[in-house]
Every structure is written in C-alpha cells, then in structure tokens.
Amino acid sequence: MKFRLRPHGVRQWLWTLTRLIIFILVLMSVLLSFSHMPGSSFSGHLPPLTEEEQKTTALLKKHVYTLAQVIGPRNIWSPPSMATTVNYLTQAMTDCGYTVLEQEFTAHDVAAINLEVEIKGGRQAQDIIVIGAHYDTIPHCPGANDNGSGVAFLLELARHLAAAQPLRTIRLVAFANEEPPFFYSKDMGSRHYAHRCRQREEKIVAMLCLETMGFYSDQPGSQHYPFPFSVFYPNTANFIGFVGNIGSRHLVRQTIDAFRKHTHFPSEGLAAPSLITGIGWSDHWSFWKEGYPAIMITDTAFFRYDAYHTASDTAEKLDYERMARVVTGLVHTIMELAEK
What we know:
Blueprint: H1 10-35, H2 51-71, H3 79-95, E1 101-107, E2 110-119, E3 124-134, H4 144-161, E4 168-175, H5 189-199, E5 203-211, E6 240-244, H6 249-262, E7 267-271, H7 284-289, E8 294-298, H8 320-338
Parallel strand pairs: 3-4, 3-5, 5-8, 6-7
Antiparallel strand pairs: 1-2, 2-4, 6-8
Helix pairs in contact: 2-4, 2-8, 4-8, 6-8
C-alpha cells in the first residue's frame, strides 16, 4: 500500500490550500475572541497629572523605595525582612484608618502572614471584591517591580478608598509566599486565603490581582508576547494589561471597560486558556482553584521588563507618574465594580 505524503495534482493542491486557509481563519477568529475587548485603548499625549496624582506619585515612590531599597529581598527564609515588611504594611494601612487583620499559616515549617483590611458594603455586603498583591520576592532580588509595585498600588488604593461607602464589600489583601518554591502550590499565601474564603462560603464576585505594574516604555519593539498574540497587540510597552482565563472573561471585559471609561491611559485585555504562558502566573490562580472569577492587572512582567527576577529589579527603573495614572483609573474601576 502506498501513502501519499503530499498532494499531487492541481485539485489536491487546491483542496489542501483551502483547508489550510480555513484552519488559519478559524484560529484567527478564536484568537480574536480572546483579545476583543469593549471600548478603545487610550492613545495620544497623556494629560497633565492632577494634584492628587502628584501626591500619589510621591507615595508610590516612597513605598517602592522602602520595600526594595530599605528592606530589600523579602521571603520567609529571611524572617527579619518579612517581619519589617508586615510592620510597614500594617502601619501604612492603619494610618489610613483601617483595622488590619492577620491570617497566619505555615509553609515549609515556617510561619507566614497574610494581611487584610475591609471596607464593609451596604445593601450588597455579601458580595465581596478582593484586591490583592503579594509582598514577597525571590532570594537576592529587591523586588521593586515584582512585586513592590503591586504592593505600593495596594497601599495607595487603600488610601483612596478609605472613605468609600460601596454597595459591595471591598477587601484589600497583602499575600505572602507567591514566589517559588511556593508558586502554583498549596503553600501560596493567596491559596490559603482563597481556600478559607471557600470554606466560609464567602461570595467572592471579583478578585483583582496587582502584579508587577511599574515598568513602561514608549520604544517600539519594547513589548513582547507568547506566540501568536503579537498579531493582535501593540509592540510598545506603554499600556497596563488586564488578563484572565476563559472562566473570568466577563470580569476581564467588565473591568477594562470601566477602566477605559474613566481613564486616559493605554490598556489592553486578554481572556484566554490558562495553559498559555503567563496567563495564570500570580495570585489570581489561587482564586481560580476555588472557583472564583479572578484577573491579573499587570505591566506583563518579563514580556517587557528585563530586570524581572534579578538583582537589578530596583526602584529607579519604575515610572511612578504612569503608575499614579493607573491608580486613578483603578479607583474608579473598583468603585464601579462595587456599585453593580
């Protein structure tokens, strides 16, 4: 018996070409469904910073410098740095008028602590929105962007939201143990937190993970993607990204729609299968494991930031003015989610 490994004749070539075109069109259609988002990303010159955004810029810089340059690498094998970080975060949130709750757990026979503050909702208080960021780093990495930036955002969001009176409850949570060897394991701080939420039968309607949010560039070619998403997204690293899995597609679309309505800052969104590189690489994954909708808000980390997970991840590399603009947008976004 003979097998034909390639088409012979004009008809077979045309049929093979037709099937290839159909496959490409279907693939493009699927990828487009992942990337299509409501509204339009802002383009053009950024407006001047408001007086409040100037204050936010200074505070973001203070938080990141304290975490990265004063405290330095933060992980449970360096108990003094973790204790100092917990004290710093607790004091910052207490200064905003919050009562800070601790969730202590054990990983690798070492104690670790998640920190939580809550803004109690009104008529829909049973609906809970969680805003979270991890405060640990890999060893020998000061972690200015990963994830001092996310923690600085968390503190500034806490300050801006302190006087809010939302319909839904808002929680702001600082997680321990996101980085390896805890990553994608039950020893993640966010995994312990999300599991406790499920045990308590709490109704988490949205989780927003603040992950590596401080690096931006206007240089063409500064942004990269896993194949083949470069076809659909810009190659300039000047935007903030909203990323989720297929199960959280509605939350991705809802969140980026609110951000774009209220904010003059470039933004891109993606809801795709979690097996794609980077889609689930942070604390939102822990909430997926418990069946909660969750997304990551990020500058895309190693897809644009060369200092990722290195000793060069230092505070002077971040763009605090652009970070302040994103804070403004997220305050409006969170409040819109909390009023649904």
